[in-house]
Amino acid sequence: MEPSVKISIRELSFFYHRTQVIDSLTCRFRENGITAITGPSGKGKTTLLMTLNRLWEDTPGAVMTGEILIRFKERVTNIYDPRVSLPWLRKKVGMVFQTPNPLPMSIYKNTAFPLMLAGIKEKPVIEERVRQALEMTFLWDEVKSRLNRDARTLSGGQQQRLCMARALVLDPEVLLLDEPTSSLDPRSLSMIEALLTHLKKDRTIIMVSHYLDQVKRIADQMMALS
Amino acid sequence: MRSQRLEFAVTLFSWISALVFLGIMTTLLTYLLIKGAPYLTLALIFGTTSPLDGLLLKQPVLNGLFPAIAGTLLLVFFSVLIALPAGLSAGIYLAEYAKGSVKGFFSLMFDLLAGIPSIVVGLFGFSVTIFLHQRFFGNLYPCLLISSVSLAFLVLPCLIRTTQTALESLPLSLRQTGLALGATPLQNLFRVLLPRALSGIMTGVILAIGRCAEDTAVIMLTGVVVSSGIPKSVFSNYEALPFYIYYISSEYRDRAELGTGYGAALLLLGICGLLYFAAFSINRRFKNAFRKRV
Predict the structure, then answer these.
(1) Which residue in A52, A79, A109, B154 has its CB near the most CB atoms, within 10 A?
(2) Could you write out the three-class secondary structure of chain A?
(3) Which of residues 6-45 of A touch B (CB under 8 A)?
(4) To probe the interface with A, which of B97, B170, B181 has the most A CB atoms within 10 Å?
(5) pLDDT at position B292, please?
(6) Does B103 lie at the interface with A, CB-CB under 8 angstroms?
(7) What's the pTM?
(8) How many domains are contained in chain B?
(9) Residue B66 belongs to what domain range?
(10) Considering only alpha carbons, which residue of chain B is nearest residue A58?
(11) Class in CATH terms, A5-224
(12) Residues A112-138: what's their mean pLDDT?
């Protein structure tokens, strides 16, 4: 695997209840930058994202074959190696879903949730990292006075930026985005695009997108599934 | 035109059903109130003992329902205490961990358990007591503990099913939220899934409380008696309201005695209402606490 390659997928096939969704896909994603995945519905775009953090494994009737290597800072890892711990992998490979999914708790606790899961207990550390994450997604100024309010009181665009902050709080090396702007208004959309352009400098971002103009605006690499 | 008529018929039928149900409930409650309210006095509860002395257990209440109320409350408490951990764990196991044929097998077993009539559960508790008495513990007789364990068996299927359903009906997206953020399955269960399933689980607990408070068949065979006073330990006999109602309505000697039966029925209704209310408030408390803690 060449040094500039972050993710290497070999002979990936995916089935849901014997229906083939992905047929022996082999591809590479470069380190840092945005790769956009496009293609019609039902062609396995979301599934492809979920093979990168193994989130599909709880889905009944799903079967995958093939190999995926990711070059993490420590070492190149075959993420389907039985020795790989899932929580560890998902801390390295963050994911943001199509619809904002804040948990029923405060803004602060939503953002701090992954830190809590990772067992970080020092309050100053948590506060600092929550602030950084919220600043990164341009949300800090909007919510700093009401961090203890229920996160579900935020607007759709704010919720999605909160979810991005939550995915970024553990500083993942790879960020998976499943049509992150599909439910947003134009203003939130441009904010998130600006955020992604900023984030891609030191992160590998894989994004499913339906909008070709968006892909042209911010993606460095495009992959069409058909 | 026809579909409109159908719409109307369905709406009408729903209204009539609701009204009939409401009517039956009101009739039943009014009947109970008319028959029982005149007897609903402190004397019904404490007899000739002074209420304060009775409550503080200074003097035994000999001719009132206080021991039966205490017995019913203790019975509900111990039964739920025994059934809750087992029911929750089994429900979590079925919803989150059991797969394929094992899950099918356990589901079938719990459904069978749910279908067992309470008198059979009572008989089972009774036979187990006899067995234990003859083989192991010569001092063991039907008592509060045996009744609680038997009742726990009776309500277990309901607790298991509601826990399982509450967890299984959570959307996949919620399940994935925690996992995608690096939660272990156990963290996901306790931090994300259970807090969200809590109100569903609470429904099961409330049903279980009601079942424990009103059951007569099980306790009749496993330790309830007409008169024993407040139980001294879980190994004592005890009194209970539903059994008192059953006993008095089959063996009353005069109108006044039958009246106390109606009074007891009202008391039992009131106690159930209070227990439901308590369960609801605990549920709300829990929800808020989870929201604050997480």
Answers:
(1) B154
(2) CCCCEEEEEEEEEEEECCEEEEEEEEEEEECCEEEEEECCCCCCHHHHHHHHHCHHHHCCCEEEEEEEEEECCCCEEECCCCCCCHHHHHHHEEEECCCCCCCCCEHHHHHHHHHHHCCCCCHHHHHHHHHHHHHHCCCHHHHHHHCCCEHHHCCHHHHHHHHHHHHHCCCCCEEEEECCCCCCCHHHHHHHHHHHHHHCCCCEEEEECCCHHHHHHHCCEEEECC
(3) none
(4) B181
(5) 54
(6) no
(7) 0.81
(8) 1
(9) 40-293
(10) B176
(11) alpha beta
(12) 92
